[in-house]
Amino acid sequence: MFQQAASVDEFRQNVETIEARIEAARLRSPHGQLVRLLPVSKTVPEERLRLAVQAGCHRLGENKVQEAHRKWQAMADLDVEWVVIGHLQTNKAKLVAEFASEFQALDSLRVAEALDRRLQALGRGLDVLVQVNTSGEESKFGLAPHEVEAFLAEMGAFGALRVRGLMTLAAFTDDTQRVRDCFVTLRTLRDRLRQSAPTGVVLDELSMGMSGDFEMAVEEGATVVRVGQAIFGARALPDSHYWPS
Ligand SMILES: *Cc1c(COP(=O)(O)O)cnc(C)c1O
Fold it and tell me: Among the atoms of ligand 1, which is closest to the Cα of residue 226?
């Protein structure tokens, strides 16, 4: 279904195609938002990533911290910002603090505390999105929607974390209405909490939508879409390697 891009031109073409589809969806959206495309480069080896960077991808999303950290080291000669979009265990907070420019999967105070401590030691700050489980699937990481308000109230304790918004993974299903409901849940939660957000917490960003559903996410207000396979080609590793099942 998704072709492997094998040259700078092919990457450029894929990115242009996705951006045109994002823009068309944005024009259909009543939310008037700007939308950023975050290319997701997990499993893609360094040689091919270098082509994507040449094609203009200067922010890359990675699900697994060690894989991302390895690529960051190997590609330190390039102008790339790394965004960690997958669940983090506290014992890997040190790695994220070292190299990430954004972390989109914050879902526990323990991880917030561990990240903040490491970041303070390095004198760095980090943009973060709070991950919300909008599908109700037990296998999904993220806070339940009703937990988010109390969670945000605790963020003032973590001076190195700049909360910028919310992130979700929609239900994995062919039922498009269920997928859309996940996006609507995230947007309405954001709109409600925005009014009363604590000082320092900004809820501008909604990171939602992937290769199969990013247009729907944009129609429902996404400001960041995380697209892997539609840019880089089908992945060899099954999704269960990256997501609990
Ligand atoms: C892999 C991944 C994506 C992108 O999925 P594609 O199907 O490749 O577009 C988005 N978000 C997260 C959290 C991911 O791990």
Answer: 10
Residues in contact with ligand 1 by the CB-under-6-Å rule are 40, 42, 63, 85-86, 169, 210-211, 226-230, 242
| C-alpha of residue 31 to centroid of ligand 1, in Å | 24
Nearest 5°: CA angle at 72, between 70 and 14?
105
pLDDT digits (tens, 9 = 90+) for 1-49: 687 888 999 999 999 999 999 999 999 999 999 999 999 999 999 999 9
Domain boundaries, position 95: 8-242
Candidates 197, 195, 200, 123; CA nearest to 157 is 200
Is position 3 within any domain? no
Please tell me the total count of domains within the chain. 1
pTM over 0.90? The answer is yes
Whose C-alpha lies nearest to ligand 1, atom 12?
A: 85
Owner of token pair 């599908």: 135
Would residue 233 count as lying in a domain?
yes
Q: Best substitution site from 22, 40, 241 to test ligand 1's pocket, by max atoms within 8 Å of Cβ?
A: 40
Q: Using 70 as the pLDDT threshold, list the residues of the chain that sit under it.
A: 1, 237-238, 242-245
Contact call for residues 96 and 65 (beta carbons, < 8 A): yes
**Measured from the CA of 228, which atom of ligand 1 is nearest?**
8
Question: Which CATH number does the domain housing residue 58 bear?
Answer: 3.20.20.10
Ligand 1 atom index nearest CA of 104:
13
Is 2 a member of any domain?
A: no
Is residue 91 a contact partner of residue 65, using CB atoms and an 8 Å limit? no
